[in-house]
Amino acid sequence: MDGELICNYKKCRKRLNSFAWVTSCSHIFCDEDGAKEFNKSYTCPACENTLSGKFDIIRIDLQPNEQYKSMVLAGQKPETIMEICTRALSFWTYQAHQERTYQEYVATKAKERAVQLEQYYEQIVSRTQTELTSLKTQLSASKKELDTTKKKHNEIAEKLLERNRQYQKLQSLYDAMRRKCITPLSFEGNSGDGTPSLGSTDRKRTTGQSFTMPLSSGDDILRQQSHGHHNQQRKHTNSPPESKMRIRATTEQYSNSW
């Protein structure tokens, strides 16, 4: 206690160094709280004992002057002086014991609170680690899914480029075949036997029907075109080209008409 008493009022607990109120139940209060409480009733604010005696409550000076010290016990018998000193020392011992008990209680409560906080924060740390592990797992799965998606995207992009190349080749082959099949007969107004020629709309429809073909894979078309090219080479070696025969027939037809 460092040589100073402490106010026993639970809401105060300040150190006493001037005037104080002392009770017969061995409690002491500061001047402010003692005056306030004892003006209300003669009940101890610490233990709630009734203090009805004349000397159950007294106001003392904790820093008495030298004259008071020399006169307060003057004329008393040694036995009385020793008894008074013994009771005063018992009061001081009781106050020290109460203060030690209170501090032990506070320390116990603080330890319990510390244990509760430690358990609480351990639970928070454990839950946080679990959530972190789960998030890491989800992140790893998301990365794998992203890699798989990128791989599929690249494969689809490559397939699309290949299909575009095949389409360009097929379009080129289609245009070449269409140019080869156009002859001067398609531009004549009338045929040689007097049959009226087809109109532009009918000619387009007929031409479109003649060029209608099922589209297969690019490899099949290329294979068919290569096979047809070889057949055309054989025909060229055995017979005159068809276009020359058509041009010759057209020339003869024009000469007969003139």
Keywords:
single chain, 258 residues, mainly alpha, three-stranded antiparallel beta sheet, 6 helices, rod-shaped, disordered C terminus
Strand order of the largest sheet: 2-1-3
Strand content: 5-15%
Topology order in helix (H) and strand (E) letters: EEHEHHHHH
Alpha carbon gyration radius: 60 Å
Separation, N- and C-terminal Cα atoms: 146 Å
> How many strands?
3
Q: How confident overall, as mean pLDDT?
A: 79
User: Please, how many helices?
Assistant: 6
> What are the segments in which pLDDT stays under 50 over at least 5 consecutive residues?
189-201, 206-217, 253-258
Global geometry: rod-shaped
Helix content: 55-70%
Secondary structural class: mainly alpha
Main sheet summary? 3 strands, antiparallel
Structural account:
The radius of gyration is 60 Å and the shape is rod-shaped. The relative contact order is 0.05. It has a three-stranded antiparallel beta sheet. The protein is mainly α. 65% of the residues lie in helices and 5% in strands. It contains six helices and three strands.
In short:
Helix content is 65%, strand content 5%. With 258 residues, it is mainly alpha-helical. The chain is rod-shaped, with a radius of gyration of 60 Å.
What is the topological layout?
Layout: E1 19-23, E2 28-30, H1 31-40, E3 57-61, H2 66-71, H3 78-181, H4 200-210, H5 218-238, H6 242-257
Antiparallel strand pairs: 1-2, 1-3
